[in-house]
Specification:
This protein has 236 residues and is of the alpha/beta class. It is 35% helix and 17% strand. It contains nine helices and seven strands. Strands 3-2-1-4-5-7-6 form a seven-stranded mixed beta sheet, with helices on both faces. Strand 4, helix 7 and strand 5 form a beta-alpha-beta unit. The chain is globular.
């Protein structure tokens, strides 16, 4: 079952402005087979009950959420090099989800679960409070035109929601190659009292070693675009 086709969920979702447009693109036969053959192993079926991370992974471990993982290569690499941590990946782009499922099977990952659904709905309705050690949002859609800024993922209400879901000492890490997005996101996050900017000058940080470069990032840097890294902590 594809999560966003679940009528039990759809009937309970209020209308709101979406932060994404579902650009499906071409899904390959291999990616389509991955949904049929690997979804039960790596995918999460969303019901009206909350997600229980310890039951989901069969252990208590640090829990990392990545929102919008693209083709999933960097997330798979992070999972492979951090087997002591558990990872949730959320993405609405089905070819990317299919690609990650294939990669996860190839790497025999045991610390990854995948959700193909709107991240805002998952956070609002399905993840418990104070459950995340880190939230990663790498190269979200910048929606550069001013009339589209309302569609940007990082909005005041969503930032407050992320702060609630983070554990004490948890961190929110955002990377973008859009300067206006970086400025706007930083301004929003600074206004959240539960969060503290970890940059020494209250600006941006260098890319931490745990974040492998994404395909999108490599293209951006190849075009001469700098990358802004934002890191906020939820103090104890």
């Amino acid at each position: 079952m594809i999560l966003y086709n679940n009528p039990r969920i759809a009937d309970h979702l209020p209308h709101r402005i979406k932060s994404f447009v579902r650009r499906e693109g071409r899904i390959t036969n291999a990616q389509r087979r991955a949904f049929h053959q690997l979804w039960e192993r790596f995918g999460i079926e969303i019901s009206l009950s909350p997600i229980e991370p310890a039951k989901l992974f069969g252990r208590h471990a640090s829990l990392i959420l990545e929102i919008g993982f693209g083709d999933g290569e960097s997330l798979a690499a992070t999972c492979a090099t951090n087997p002591e941590m558990d990872f949730l990946g959320i993405e609405v782009y089905r070819p990317g989800v299919g690609h990650l499922l294939l990669r996860a099977a190839e790497l025999e990952l045991r610390n990854l679960k995948v959700i193909c659904f709107d991240a805002v709905e998952i956070l609002e309705r399905h993840l418990p409070e104070s459950c995340l050690d880190r939230v990663q949002i790498f190269f979200p859609d910048p929606w550069p035109k001013p009339r589209h800024h309302k569609r940007r993922l990082i909005q005041p209400a969503f930032a407050s929601l992320l702060a609630r879901k983070l554990k004490a000492a948890g961190v929110l890490h955002i990377a973008t190659d859009c300067e206006s997005y970086a400025r706007a996101a930083s301004k929003i996050l600074v206004a959240i009292p539960e969060l503290k900017n970890m940059a020494a000058d209250s600006g941006y940080i260098s890319a931490p070693p745990y974040r492998p470069p994404t395909k999108f990032e490599q293209r951006a840097k190849g075009s001469g675009h700098p990358v802004w890294e934002i890191l906020f902590l939820k103090p104890i």
